[in-house]
Amino acid sequence: MLKIYIASKFKHGERWNNGLEFSRFDLVSRWITHYAGQVPDEPQFCKIGWIHDLEDVARADALVVYAESGEHLCGALVEVGAALALGKHVVLVGEHPDWGTWQYHPLVHKVLTVDAAEQILECMEWGKY
After folding, report:
1. Partners of residue 74 on adjacent β-strands
2. Which of 19, 63, 73, 81 is deepest in the core (most CB within 10 A)?
């Protein structure tokens, strides 16, 4: 089963945790179940959270980045950099002004919808991408 890390704003954590999207993959993003909506955004919690995030990116096969219009990404961009440095595929969902020139890296794949992201990940799982 393909292991994926989802990078998005904390407010989307419940969406990923409900199991309706990306359900056929192994979600390795601990922030979704351990932090989003449960832990305050304070330094003592952020230290261990970031250690977990980077460990999770390292054990993932691919990283999915999701952002909606009007959102400004910060942490997700750090996670993308870590994933690319480790040679992981990155799937960008939608169009967003925070997708810089790094969106043209050969390991980055842009799609318009979550459904399309799932299709690309399925192709990766079967070694066809």
Report:
1. none
2. 63
CA 35 to chain centre: 15
Write down the pLDDT at residue 40: 64
Axis crossing angle, helix 75-85 with helix 43-59, rounded to the nearest 10: 30
CB-based contact 27:6 (threshold 8 Å): yes
> What is the CATH number that goes with domain 3-125?
3.40.50.450
Q: Which amino acid, one-letter code, is at 109?
A: H
What token pair was written down for 80? 């993308």
Predicted confidence at residue 19, as pLDDT, reads 79
pTM: 0.92
